[in-house]
């Protein structure tokens, strides 16, 4: 008997990829199915909202658990600098490589591909750049370019992180919000990227309209493709400045604000276009010591502008030793 994560089959690929990226997938045992679920062997006691249970799992030939075990040529004095985590989008991996390890980038990429069977190509990631929030990528191993198809919750998301913004680590959050959407809602995504929120919501719920806005014209192209490929007819991708475009749209029941560096600067526009009783889902990167004061500041600032709000928040993930990414559900009450 081993610990297994019980996951609906439609979520299996995205959850497996995230477990692999975090080094939590038990590679010594096989994934099995049980009705409409997968039982994924794991090396942890909890993961998101998915239940962990003990189950029989067939053993398989033990593969290396992580790329750091097989990467070649890196001197012993530098191996501690090998990154622990990396992002997987579709069939590509993106990894931040410290300057000291740049001469070994090819070896790192080859090790990522060797350990992760579903990775076609590996890229060094020098971070998000510019107002379009695209990643500065350089291929270090594998075949093909950075355009890929990311799968989650039965949805296929066409994207290219070198051209458009996409965050693979919010898949559970996209599912959570889709579960909150009531029939007939009007939804605005102010910083939509390739419309992962809009596509997942349109596939799993029944809103009347979803407007996905982004400054980057390439994002609209990918969002249109995602709407078409997934049969989401209520998704309307748009290019422009969301602080202006929102005033051209109907008042919303729900607004999504996934621009974690500066989303709070746009909250007044969101409240102005949100129905009383509606909710804005905002994401913010903050020092953990500053979070309580930040929440109080939002309430006070919105009150000074004539908006009464109620906030429900949670810490999504660690961003740095002292900072985290927070999810804030901000309801307009007056």
Your description of this structure?
The structure is a single chain. Helices cover 23% and strands 33% of the residues. It is an alpha/beta fold and 334 residues long. The protein folds into three domains: 2-55, Alpha-Beta Plaits; 67-146, GMP Synthetase, Chain A, domain 3 (2-Layer Sandwich); 164-332, Vaccinia Virus protein VP39 (Rossmann fold), CATH 3.40.50.150. Strands 13-12-11-14-15-17-16 form a seven-stranded mixed sheet, sandwiched between helices. The chain has a four-stranded antiparallel sheet with strand order 2-3-1-4. A four-stranded mixed sheet has the order 5-6-7-8. A hairpin with a 2-residue loop joins strand 5 and strand 6 (92-95). Helix 3 (171-180) crosses helix 4. The longest helix has 14 residues, at 291-304. It starts with a strand and ends with a strand.
